[in-house]
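Supplementary Methods. Inverse-folding protocol.

Structures were first reduced to a discrete structure-token string of length 317. This string, shown here, constituted the complete conditioning input.
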């Protein structure tokens, strides 16, 4: 319009940019998945009241816990209208017969069609299996109705496995799944540094791996809890970046949310820099709390902050 000077135009342009950016953040978060460890009936009921029907809920493999806990949790999630995705830590199984019996129960009791297949953290396997690829390319999963699998990725590296070995293993598992017709996606260990995450994804794409990636992010929780999990799970490098960015020693018991990471990753997705990516939330601060935060962001209830992050507005209960 004639007569509009640059000073009056700038706020309108900025407001338009903020609206578009907020929409891209909501769109990115809308496809979120979430991870639960031994979810109770109360946890599942609360989650079903928050998350959209069909939301994928990954069920962690807890060492030395009965497998019936997993099948019961998967059945509760299915009956609540959610999609259970149990972890299968192959080193925990004595032999193929034990694994086959477990898969049969998951299929019969909970209609499980998706799994996250990992080796597991045992130094010494309980039996015949040493690596995830042995199970992926054996045909056992498909015989029990599994059509989709996730495999693990490590943007921050692994405390016991060299990066080259991680790359080779990842490519091998993807090739095995592609060869036998299993739909495959990558689910990453949680990481606190967007630069590290995006550099890792860029390497994947340069290798020709264009499969969907679900990026592990810690849901809202205290910084002290994040530091504890970071040490346990071997993501110290990005934990140090988090500490530098937040002044961790001064805010050890303050609440932290992954808003800055989500904003940066949403921008990369919107700009076509990362391929197909979506957030995967680890519920260290509680399943319902993580789900409420993610659902509020997905619904667009956010206000952008100057700089990197945003706040949920109004805050989730």
């Amino acid at each position: 319009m004639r007569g509009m000077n640059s000073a009056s135009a700038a706020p309108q342009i900025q407001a338009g940019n903020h609206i578009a950016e907020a929409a891209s953040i909501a769109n990115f978060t809308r496809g979120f998945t979430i991870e639960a460890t031994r979810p109770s009936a109360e946890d599942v009921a609360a989650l079903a009241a928050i998350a959209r029907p069909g939301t994928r809920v990954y069920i962690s493999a807890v060492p030395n816990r009965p497998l019936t806990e997993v099948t019961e949790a998967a059945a509760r999630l299915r009956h609540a209208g959610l999609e259970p995705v149990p972890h299968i830590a192959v080193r925990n199984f004595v032999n193929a017969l034990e694994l086959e019996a477990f898969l049969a129960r998951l299929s019969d009791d909970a209609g499980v069609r998706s799994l996250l297949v990992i080796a597991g953290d045992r130094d010494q396997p309980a039996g015949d299996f040493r690596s995830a690829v042995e199970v992926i390319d054996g045909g056992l999963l498909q015989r029990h109705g599994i059509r989709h699998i996730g495999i693990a990725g490590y943007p921050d590296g692994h405390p016991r496995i060299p990066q080259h070995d991680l790359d080779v293993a990842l490519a091998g598992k993807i090739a095995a799944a592609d060869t036998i017709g299993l739909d495959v996606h990558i689910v990453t260990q949680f990481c606190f540094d967007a630069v590290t995450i995006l550099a890792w994804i860029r390497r994947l794409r340069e290798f020709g791996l264009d499969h969907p990636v679900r990026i592990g992010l810690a849901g809202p929780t205290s910084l002290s809890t994040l530091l504890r999990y970071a040490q346990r799970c071997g993501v110290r490098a990005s934990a140090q970046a988090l500490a530098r960015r937040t002044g961790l020693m001064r805010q050890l018991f303050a609440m932290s949310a992954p808003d800055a990471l989500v904003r940066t990753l949403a921008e990369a997705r919107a700009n076509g820099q990362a391929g197909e990516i979506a957030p995967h939330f680890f519920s260290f601060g509680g399943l319902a709390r993580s789900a409420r935060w993610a659902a509020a962001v997905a619904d667009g209830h956010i206000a952008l902050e100057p700089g990197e992050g945003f706040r949920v507005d109004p805050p989730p209960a």
